[in-house]
């Protein structure tokens, strides 16, 4: 393959869509991003525009290619990563979306989830299956397409691949499939029992293919060349791969809109601890002897979004100025912020919990609340670390919120362990690029691709053990006061 070739990565997140062009040495040649809009039509609902996903994805990919100095013809492959559990319905004949995308954080399915849990079925509001089911039961256009047999369901990776290929590709990977709640890890396919439970015809769902595998091409008219679509992966799976988490016991933490801890385990059939999920990580290639890697995943639902919320209500001038805002306050002056704006995720899974701010006095200033938010997000991440069997080695950290040096040091102090912050905060896009390059032989081995990453920045704990234990005890008290129901003794 030509030394001048490059790979293209597309990362459709919750709040923005990003693209970057990467060369063989791991240098980002060009990048672009655009914000995504959201609608909150009812309490607990979150909707996005599927057509905006496509339009802005094409825009940022074109811009990234232009800025890279590469010709479209020199792009050897495209990798797509996306928010995983967002549900999209469209018509196969027209290619048109039939309803707004139901966001992964949307909780309109809460009553149905509660019913299933009462029956002993382990599921949560994140699962796309209950969102697809809601559309089938409540949207007349979706119902009509189902009757015609032209209905298609998918997560954003499926929708983007379908539209970029002008309808020739209808596929997903194991990581995305598992997030629907309808994946059979034993057979690595759709689970017929779940399909029957949710009333979903298998024909409405995409084919499950390897993560790193060419499935089609971007239509030449969209980007200026027919670029192979060579990878599709969940955002957390992609960042886990990019961080070199390649053996059981290793873990990475992504600090973004939410915070996600992914612990590499032996296989996806392992029984996860309460509050966590076993998921496939990736499958490289089609060969029968290629193993599907797996992880346990835990979630802090509102991490970066808690900081954004403080900015939206006027307590912070801008979320990007977090470190400068708290630079003049050594601590929160007793203020405690529990970031449960959309409930508590792992290990509590308490969707009815509500965010709380304790300890306010007449002398409390916005900087103290900002500092309390840093502490609160850090404590929630430590909750994840303490409840999974992580190896005794530095924890790899990435994501936009990891740019905060104050937060990184606070997290290291409260966790009592060293951290390694990725030099490239957008490791999800890096993972997409690595997967795409491996599929076409741009790199010959995962280690070759991952070795191109720049050296991470280390953080070491500075807080005395006694002070750390005291801080964690106070935090557990704050959590108990925030829970919707008292914890069992």
Explain the overall architecture.
- 51% of the residues are buried.
- The longest helix is centred in the C-terminal third of the chain and has 21 residues, at 366-386.
- The model has no long low-confidence stretch (mean pLDDT 93).
- Helix 10 (304-312) packs antiparallel against helix 12 (366-386).
- The protein contains 16 helices and 23 strands.
- The radius of gyration is 22 Å and the shape is globular.
- Helix 13 (405-415) links the parallel strand 21 and strand 22 (419-421).
- The chain is of the alpha+beta class.
- The chain has helices at residues 50-68, 110-118, 128-138, 140-148, 156-164, 174-178, 192-198, 220-223, 235-242, 304-312, 322-326, 366-386, 405-415, 427-439, 446-450, 465-482, and strands at 6-12, 16-22, 28-35, 47-48, 75-82, 88-91, 101-102, 151-154, 171-172, 183-184, 189-190, 207-208, 212-217, 228-234, 251-255, 259-265, 277-282, 293-300, 336-338, 356-358, 395-398, 419-421, 457-459.
- The strands form 7 sheets. A 7-stranded mixed sheet has the order 17-18-16-15-21-22-23. It has a 6-stranded mixed sheet with strand order 3-2-1-5-14-13, with helices on both faces. A two-stranded antiparallel ribbon has the order 4-7.
- It folds into 2 domains: 6-236, ATPase, nucleotide binding domain (Nucleotidyltransferase, domain 5, 2-Layer Sandwich); 244-421 and 456-489, Nucleotidyltransferase, domain 5 (2-Layer Sandwich).
């Amino acid at each position: 393959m030509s030394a001048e070739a490059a790979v293209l990565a597309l990362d459709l997140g919750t709040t923005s869509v990003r693209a970057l062009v990467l060369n063989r040495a791991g240098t980002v040649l060009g990048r672009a991003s655009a914000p995504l809009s959201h609608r909150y039509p009812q309490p607990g609902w979150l909707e996005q525009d599927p057509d905006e996903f496509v339009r802005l994805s094409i825009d940022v990919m074109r811009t990234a290619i232009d800025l890279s100095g590469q010709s479209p013809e020199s792009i050897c492959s495209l990798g797509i990563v996306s928010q995983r559990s967002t549900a999209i319905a469209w018509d196969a004949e027209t290619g048109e979306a039939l309803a707004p995308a139901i966001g992964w954080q949307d909780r309109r399915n809460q009553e149905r989830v509660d019913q299933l849990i009462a029956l002993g079925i382990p599921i949560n509001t994140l699962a796309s299956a209950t969102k697809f089911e809601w559309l089938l039961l409540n949207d007349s256009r979706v119902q009509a397409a189902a009757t015609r047999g032209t209905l298609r369901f998918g997560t954003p990776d499926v929708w983007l691949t379908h539209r970029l290929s002008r309808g020739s590709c209808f596929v997903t990977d194991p990581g995305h499939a598992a997030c629907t709640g309808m994946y059979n890890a034993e057979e690595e396919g759709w689970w017929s029992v779940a399909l029957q439970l949710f009333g979903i015809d298998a024909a409405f769902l995409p084919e499950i293919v390897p993560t790193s595998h060419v499935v089609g091409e971007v239509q030449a008219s969209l980007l200026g060349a027919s670029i192979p679509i060579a990878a599709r992966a969940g955002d957390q799976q992609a960042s886990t791969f990019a961080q070199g988490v390649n053996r059981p016991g290793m873990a990475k933490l992504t600090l973004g809109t939410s915070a996600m801890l992914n612990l590499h385990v032996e296989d996806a059939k392992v029984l996860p601890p309460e509050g966590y999920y076993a998921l496939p990580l990736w499958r490289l290639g089609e060969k029968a002897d290629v193993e599907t890697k797996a992880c346990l995943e835990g979630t802090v639902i509102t991490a970066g979004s808690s900081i954004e919320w403080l900015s939206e209500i006027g307590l912070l001038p801008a979320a990007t100025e977090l470190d400068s805002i708290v630079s003049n306050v050594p601590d929160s002056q007793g203020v405690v912020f529990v970031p449960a704006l959309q409930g508590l995720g792992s290990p509590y899974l308490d969707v009815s919990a509500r965010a709380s701010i304790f300890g306010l006095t007449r002398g409390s200033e916005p900087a103290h609340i900002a500092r309390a938010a840093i502490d609160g997000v850090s404590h929630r991440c430590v909750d994840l670390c303490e409840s999974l069997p992580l190896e005794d080695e530095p924890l790899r950290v990435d994501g936009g919120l990891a740019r905060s040096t104050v937060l990184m040091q606070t997290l290291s102090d409260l966790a009592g362990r060293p951290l390694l912050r990725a030099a490239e905060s957008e490791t999800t896009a890096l993972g997409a690029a690595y997967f795409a390059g491996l599929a076409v032989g741009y790199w010959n081995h995962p280690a070759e691709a991952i070795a191109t990453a720049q050296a991470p920045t280390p953080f070491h704990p500075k807080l005395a053990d006694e002070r750390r234990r005291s801080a964690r005890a106070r935090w557990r008290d704050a959590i108990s006061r925030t829970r919707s129901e008292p914890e069992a003794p």
